[in-house]
Amino acid sequence: MAVAPALPVSGTVTGAVECRITETGTVIARFRLTARPREWNPRSRTWHDGTPVIYICTVWRDLARNAAESLTDGVAVLVHGRITEVRDNTLWLSVDDLGISLRQRIAYTEASLPSPAAAAPISAPPAAAAPSPAASRDSRPPWWAAARTQGWTAAITGPAGTSAEAR
User: Fold this and answer.
1) Half-sphere exposure of 89 toward its Cβ, with a 13 Å CA cutoff?
2) CA distances from residue 40 to 10, 36, 44, 51, 82 in whole angstroms, order as listed
3) What does the pLDDT read at residue 167?
4) What are the φ/ψ torsions at residue 42 (nearest 5 degrees)?
5) What is the DSSP string of 70-81?
6) Could you tell me if 160 and 146 are in contact, meaning their C-beta atoms sit under 8 angstroms apart?
7) What is the pLDDT of residue 148?
8) Which is more confident, 21 or 146?
9) How far apart are the first and last CA of the chain?
């Protein structure tokens, strides 16, 4: 039996992800994906949204578990999968790989999550110690001005011959 070629699809998750576990313990998740291809109109010389293409995506095992935890309605995703069926103007995909599109949002992985200190509130300095408005506009580090006046050689070698990476 010939295997269908895998194809990439970019679209938006429409609705909630349905997740279930089979009797053998295999996790299966299913979600709707709507792709709106852009089409060029040569008469008006503009781009416009084409006819939406609807996909029913099925994911298995760890990918299904991760999809159920990560995807919500309205999230733009990139899917890599094979067409398994065409029914009622809907394409059914068996998904091999799945990723969240970074076009409209920032995504964090477990390794790149910001530290809790990043969310700590920043307290304002006491009124007497407040910097002047001119000083607050210049956020460059102290070594920057010296490196600039010395033709940037100080930025490369650093003070006392140390490299910029060592500082």
Assistant:
1) 4
2) 18, 13, 9, 13, 27
3) 46
4) -70, -25
5) H--TT-EEEEEE
6) no
7) 72
8) 21
9) 61
